[in-house]
Write a structure and sequence with these properties.
The complex is a heterotrimer of chains A (365), B (258) and C (66).
Chain A: H1 13-21, H2 30-37, H3 45-60, E1 63-73, H4 98-110, E2 115-120, H5 129-139, E3 145-149, H6 155-164, E4 168-170, H7 178-184, H8 193-205, E5 210-214, H9 222-239, E6 244-248, H10 267-280, E7 285-288, H11 294-300, E8 307-309, H12 337-346, E9 350-352
Parallel strand pairs in A: 1-2, 1-8, 1-9, 2-3, 3-4, 4-5, 5-6, 6-7, 7-8
Helix pairs in contact in A: 1-2, 2-9, 2-10, 3-10, 4-5, 5-6, 6-8, 9-10
Chain B: E1 5-7, E2 10-12, E3 16-19, H1 26-36, E4 40-47, E5 67-70, H2 78-90, E6 96-99, H3 112-124, E7 128-133, H4 137-145, E8 152-153, H5 167-176, E9 182-184, H6 190-198, E10 203-206, H7 208-211, H8 216-236
Parallel strand pairs in B: 3-4, 3-10, 4-5, 6-7, 7-8, 9-10
Antiparallel strand pairs in B: 1-2
Helix pairs in contact in B: 1-8, 2-3, 4-5, 6-8
Chain C: E1 2-5, E2 8-11, H1 18-25, E3 33-36, E4 39-40, E5 56-64
Parallel strand pairs in C: 1-5
Antiparallel strand pairs in C: 1-2, 3-4, 3-5
Classes of the chains: A alpha/beta (365), B alpha/beta (258), C mainly beta (66).
Chain lengths: 365, 258, 66
C-alpha cells in the first residue's frame, strides 16, 4: 500500500477529485486525508469548509462545550524550547496549595464553568499522582467533569486518578516527527517520544472517559502533523471504545523564552487543518483554546470546533490573585466566560456548561 | 482475486460462508457448496434418528476444503449452548463454533445475555467462538473484549430474506470492530450480500436464500459473485451515498481579509 | 439390560462397552458425539466406557443447519 503523502508533486489530479468526492462519507482513508491536507487541496478550502460544517452540525448539533484550565503549578524539570515553563526560564515559580486550587475552582464555578482542567508543568516535587488525587477529591464534587493536563503517568497512576474523580487525560504529543521532537525536548523526562505516546494509551486502558490529543502547531509541517494526529486519534478510538477522544490545535504563541518557530501556521492553514480534522474524525471533539483571538475563534467555530476554553488564565493562581506568576503562553482572547457564552448564543450556538453529571451516582468511579 | 479473510489465525480466500440446512437433498447441498466457493460451512448437531437410514451429511462435505462451523442451534440458554459446543468438538467436528442461543421460536432472535455467558465459558475452553447476535454495537464490543474471533450480527430475521434491515447498527459495528464482522441471517439476494460487503463487512453467511432457490447451485454461484462485487467495490473506495450539496454563505471568506 | 437411547427405551446386552454398542447399532464413531446421563464421553474412552442399566445415552451427529 502506498504510504500516504501530503507531497503535492506526487498527487495526481484524479486522486484529488476522488478524495473531494468522498469528503462527506465519514470513511476517508489516510491516503485520501493526506491528499485533502496537501497543497493541491488549498484552493478547495471552501468546499472542505462546507462539508465540515455540515458534518459537525449533523453529529454535534450546535453544541460547544466550555471548559476552563486551572494552572496548579508552573514548576518544571523539562527543557522544552518553546514553553514558558521551561526549566531554564527565569519566571516566578509557584505551586498552589490544595486550598488555593479550591479557591481557583470556586471562582471558575461561580462564573458558570463545570468542566475543569488541571494543568501543570512536570515536576514530581510539585505535582504527583497523590497530590492530584487530593485535589480531585476536594473539587470534583462541585464540578461535572475534571481532566488533567500534567506529566504522563502509568496505568496504575491513572487508575488512582480515575478513582479519585478525574475523568479525562489531555496529553499532547506536541510533534509526531521524531527528529523535531528530539530537537525541541532537550532535557527532562519529556525527552522520550515513545514513553509520552504510550501514556495516552495507558490512560485509555485505565478507563479514562476523555482522552485529549494534540500537536503544537509550528514545530513541524502542519500537514504531516495533522495526518499523524488523525492516525493517532483513530488508533485510540479503536483501542479504547469507551472513551471520547478530542484533538486540539494550539498554535505556538510568544512566551517568555525567545524561541524561533520553524514552521509558522497561518490562519488559513489552521482553518484548513480544522476542516480536514472534522472530515477525518467525524466523532471526535475539536478543541480551540484562548491562544486564538476572539474574532478568529468566531470564524473557526463553524468549521468543526466543538469545545472551547473561556475566561482562561494561564498562570497559577491567576483567577483569584492579582500577582502574576509565570504564564505558559500569552492568551489572545481575554473575554469573560459569560461573554463568550453570550457571543456563542448570538451566533446560534448552544454553549454547554455541563455535559453530564456523574454526581447522580455518588462520587465518580 | 479478493483479499483474504482471517479468522483466529486461519486464512480464507472466500468471504461467503454457507449454511447447510433446508436443502432438498445432500447432493444439491454439495453442489451448492462447490458453486459458492465457500470454505466455511455451518452444520447443526442433532440426535441420530436410529429408525431410518440418514444420509451422513459429513460424507458430502470435503473436509479438506471446508472448515466446519458447528452451530449451537436448539440451545435456549448458555448451558445448552456450551453443551452443544463441547459435543461438537468431542465428535471431532471442529474447534470453531457458531454460538447461537435462541430462546424464542417465532422470530428466532438471539439472547444477548445467554450468548455472552456462553461465549465467556467457551473462549476460556479454547473454542474459536463466532457469536450470532442482534446488531448491537455494545454487545459486539463486549464479545470482542472477551476473546470472540468474530461477531455475526443479523441482517434481518432468520429465513425472512428481507435483506439488511439493521443497516445503521451494522455500520456502527463495522466501524468499531477490531475483529471480522460477518453479516448473518436474512440475506435474501446476492444484492443484499453485495450491500453488506460494500458497507465494509468482512464476510456474510447465507443459508435459506440458496437452499430454497429453484436452482441452488446457480444461486450459490450468484451469491459468490455478489460477495466478490461488493468486496471489490468497498476496496476500490465507494463514493458518497446520496449526499446533496446545499448552497449557503461562504465560510472561509474571513481569510481573504488577511 | 434396559437403557434409554436417544429418548427411546432399548434392550442391550449386559457388560457392553460404548464402542461395541455403537458398532452393534451401526453408528460410526467418527463424527459422533456421545453423552451418558448428561455427561459428555471423551472419544478416547469409548472403548473402555461401560454401559450400566438405566443409563440415558444420547448420540449426536451433524445435520444440515444455518
Amino acid at each position: 500500500m502506498k504510504r500516504p503523502t501530503t507531497d503535492t508533486t506526487t498527487i495526481q489530479r484524479a486522486e484529488l477529485e476522488t478524495a473531494l468526492s468522498r469528503i462527506s462519507c465519514e470513511s476517508l482513508s489516510l491516503g485520501e486525508i493526506a491528499v485533502l491536507l496537501s497543497h493541491s487541496a488549498d484552493e478547495h478550502l471552501e468546499t472542505l469548509a462546507h462539508a465540515a460544517n455540515e458534518l459537525t452540525r449533523k453529529i454535534f448539533g450546535r453544541t460547544v462545550k466550555l471548559y476552563a484550565p486551572i494552572y496548579i503549578s508552573n514548576e518544571c524539570i523539562n527543557g522544552c524550547l518553546y514553553c514558558g515553563f521551561n526549566a531554564s526560564s527565569k519566571i516566578a515559580r509557584r505551586t498552589l496549595s490544595i486550598d488555593e486550587v479550591k479557591k481557583e475552582a470556586e471562582t471558575l464555578i461561580s462564573t458558570g464553568h463545570r468542566h475543569l482542567l488541571l494543568v501543570s508543568g512536570e515536576d514530581p516535587k510539585a505535582v504527583t499522582v497523590d497530590s492530584l488525587c487530593e485535589i480531585a477529591k476536594s473539587i470534583r464534587p462541585s464540578c461535572a467533569s475534571l481532566s488533567v493536563e500534567v506529566q504522563p503517568f502509568d496505568e496504575s497512576g491513572y487508575r488512582k486518578l480515575s478513582e479519585a474523580g478525574v475523568d479525562g487525560v489531555t496529553l499532547y504529543q506536541e510533534t509526531y516527527d521524531r527528529i523535531s521532537y528530539e530537537k525541541f525536548h532537550r532535557s527532562g523526562p519529556k525527552k522520550f517520544f515513545e514513553a509520552r505516546l504510550r501514556s495516552v494509551d495507558s490512560a485509555g486502558a485505565a478507563g479514562m472517559r476523555f482522552l485529549g490529543l494534540g500537536a503544537l502547531l509550528g514545530l513541524f509541517d502542519w500537514r504531516q502533523e495533522a495526518l499523524s494526529l488523525i492516525a493517532h486519534a483513530r488508533e485510540m478510538m479503536k483501542k479504547h471504545w469507551r472513551s471520547f477522544v478530542t484533538v486540539s490545535v494550539p498554535r505556538i504563541r510568544d512566551c517568555s523564552s525567545s524561541f524561533k518557530m520553524p514552521n509558522p501556521v497561518t490562519d488559513r492553514d489552521l482553518a484548513h487543518m480544522i476542516c480536514v480534522l472534522r472530515l477525518a474524525l467525524p466523532r471526535c471533539g475539536i478543541i480551540l483554546s484562548t491562544r486564538e483571538p476572539a474574532d478568529l475563534r468566531r470564524n473557526l467555530l463553524p468549521l468543526g470546533v466543538t469545545q472551547m476554553s473561556a475566561g482562561s488564565c494561564t498562570s497559577p493562581g491567576g483567577y483569584t490573585s492579582q500577582e502574576k506568576s509565570g504564564e505558559q503562553f500569552h492568551m489572545e482572547d481575554h473575554r469573560k466566560a459569560s461573554e463568550v457564552a453570550t457571543s456563542l448564543i448570538e451566533m446560534g450556538y448552544d454553549p454547554i456548561w455541563k455535559d453530564w453529571d456523574s454526581n447522580l451516582f455518588g462520587t465518580n468511579g | 482475486m479478493m483479499d483474504e479473510l482471517k479468522i483466529a489465525g486461519k486464512t480464507f480466500s472466500s468471504r461467503l460462508l454457507i449454511g447447510t440446512g433446508k436443502f432438498p437433498s445432500n447432493d444439491s447441498m454439495r453442489d451448492a457448496i462447490e458453486s459458492s466457493g465457500a470454505q466455511i460451512a455451518t452444520v447443526a448437531l442433532r440426535r441420530v434418528d436410529l429408525s431410518k437410514e440418514d444420509g451422513d451429511i459429513l460424507s458430502y462435505i470435503d473436509r479438506k476444503k471446508i472448515t466446519l462451523l458447528p452451530n449451537t442451534s436448539g440451545a435456549r440458554d448458555a448451558k445448552e449452548a456450551v453443551m452443544l459446543a463441547r459435543l461438537a468438538r468431542e465428535a471431532g467436528l471442529s474447534d470453531f463454533v457458531k454460538l447461537e442461543v435462541v430462546p424464542e421460536p417465532r422470530y428466532l432472535m438471539p439472547d444477548p445475555i445467554e450468548t455472552f455467558k456462553a461465549a465467556e465459558i467457551l473462549v476460556k475452553e479454547g473454542f474459536t467462538v463466532l457469536p450470532y447476535i442482534n446488531a448491537d454495537p455494545i454487545l459486539a464490543k463486549k464479545l470482542e473484549e472477551i476473546g470472540c474471533a468474530t461477531v455475526m450480527p443479523l441482517g434481518s430475521p432468520i429465513g425472512s430474506n428481507r435483506g439488511i434491515k439493521t443497516r445503521d447498527a451494522i455500520a456502527m459495528i463495522i466501524d468499531q470492530s477490531n475483529i471480522p464482522v460477518v453479516v448473518d441471517a436474512g440475506l435474501g439476494a446476492p444484492s443484499h450480500a453485495a450491500e453488506a460487503m460494500e458497507m465494509g463487512a468482512d464476510a456474510v453467511l447465507v443459508n435459506t436464500a440458496i437452499a430454497v432457490a429453484s436452482n441452488q447451485s446457480e444461486m450459490a454461484r450468484a451469491f459468490r459473485l455478489g460477495v466478490e462485487a461488493g468486496r471489490s467495490a468497498y476496496m476500490a473506495g465507494l463514493g458518497p451515498q446520496g449526499e446533496t450539496a446545499s448552497a449557503s454563505s461562504p465560510l472561509t471568506g474571513f481569510l481573504n481579509r488577511e | 439390560m434396559k437403557i434409554t437411547l436417544n429418548g427411546n427405551e432399548k434392550d442391550i446386552s449386559d457388560e457392553i462397552v460404548l464402542s461395541a454398542l455403537l458398532s452393534e447399532i451401526g453408528i460410526d464413531e467418527r463424527g459422533t458425539a456421545v453423552a451418558i446421563n448428561g455427561e459428555i464421553v471423551s472419544k478416547k474412552t469409548f472403548h473402555e466406557k461401560k454401559i450400566n442399566a438405566g443409563d440415558r445415552i444420547d448420540l449426536l451427529r451433524a445435520i444440515g443447519g444455518g
